[in-house]
Design a protein that fits this description.
Blueprint (H helix, E strand, L loop, with lengths): L9 H15 L3 H9 L3 H12 L8 H6 L2 E5 L5 H13 L6 E6 L2 H11 L10 E5 L13 E7 L8 H11 E12 L6 H23 L2 H13 L3 H10 L18 E4 L4 E7 L2
Helix pairs in contact: 1-9, 3-5, 8-9
The structure holds S-adenosylmethionine.
């Protein structure tokens, strides 16, 4: 690959990824817009709506405590704000709480800055945790109702470890939900056009807009290396999750994921039994 990841140690890979996100933290919105042709905002809206955060038909205890959401790789604050907006405005829930967790302090600082413009921070409905998704020892087992990760997991060195940790921290009945770019579009013609766009234009735009070709090149390559939708669904199952639409014999009805924009991105979900 561009950074020669195959030949350097795994720990170096993690620090390289951290460097990429430190360098893009301040112009993060522009980067996401280029990577997704601006559609990431709609995907995030759809992702959050599909999870319907906030307590609706709750026991008294749940009503008192609200939902506990852990947003992993959530440094931009984008998902946390949407979750809390949805819980508050749609479900009239003022208790649901989000822990925004990220490996990168610069990204967390960006999220904190954004969330400080809302009332959620002052209301104590958000906390921040600097942590590697592969080691969430700061989070108690079976303590989380909803684990989200948006555009983060493809950067993790050991995705299986991150899935194991997601399984551990979720309560039984808790939901794992992932929004991520996918390596192949469903239509081969669109796939060819999109690949051309992403491999040639995105690094160039990164160079022009952010004077940072390498980071953007890395991001394009990380999408290419990410498992296909069926492969990733299998990894989620291997971690112990049931996937929505799964029959009792373990075979899947719907595949367990939802393609967005012809498969440029996909949502995967799993439930801890
Ligand atoms: N979820 C946010 C969103 O959708 O706007 C941010 C996505 S950003 C493309 C990817 C994030 O993953 C960065 O903030 C980066 O620091 C974080 N990240 C990368 N490797 C990580 C790891 N091993 N553990 C936790 N976070 C990680």
């Amino acid at each position: 690959t561009h950074f020669g990841f195959e030949t350097i140690s795994e720990s170096m890979k993690a620090s390289k990824v951290a460097g990429v996100f430190s360098s893009v933290a301040s112009n993060y919105d522009a980067m996401n817009d280029f990577m997704s042709l601006g559609i990431h905002r709609l995907w995030k809206d759809h992702f959050v709506r599909s999870l319907n955060p906030g307590v609706q038909y709750a026991s008294l205890q749940e009503q008192q405590e609200g939902q506990r959401i852990l947003d992993i790789a959530g440094g931009s604050g984008d998902i946390a704000i949407r979750m809390l907006d949805h819980a508050t405005n749609i479900n009239r829930d003022n208790k649901t709480h989000v822990i925004v967790s990220d490996i990168n302090p610069d990204m967390l600082a960006e999220g904190r800055k954004r969330l400080s413009t809302t009332s959620y921070q002052a209301d104590g409905r958000v906390d921040y945790l600097e942590a590697n998704a592969e080691d969430l020892s700061a989070v108690k087992s079976s303590s989380i109702d909803l684990y989200t990760v948006a555009f983060g997991i493809r950067n993790f060195t050991h995705k299986d470890k991150a899935l194991e940790e997601a399984f551990r921290v979720l309560k039984p009945g808790g939901v794992f939900a992932c929004l991520e770019f996918a390596p192949q579009l469903s239509n081969p013609l669109f796939n060819a056009v999109y690949k051309r766009w992403s491999f040639s234009a995105i690094p160039l735009i990164g160079q022009i807009v952010a004077a940072d070709r390498d980071s953007y090149q890395y991001l394009v390559e990380s999408i290419e290396r990410f498992p296909s939708q069926p492969e990733f669904a299998q990894m989620i199952k291997d971690a112990g999750f049931l996937i929505p639409g799964q029959k009792p014999d373990g075979t899947s009805i719907e595949g367990g994921w939802e393609d967005l924009s012809m498969g440029i991105a996909a949502i995967h979900k799993g439930v801890k039994p």
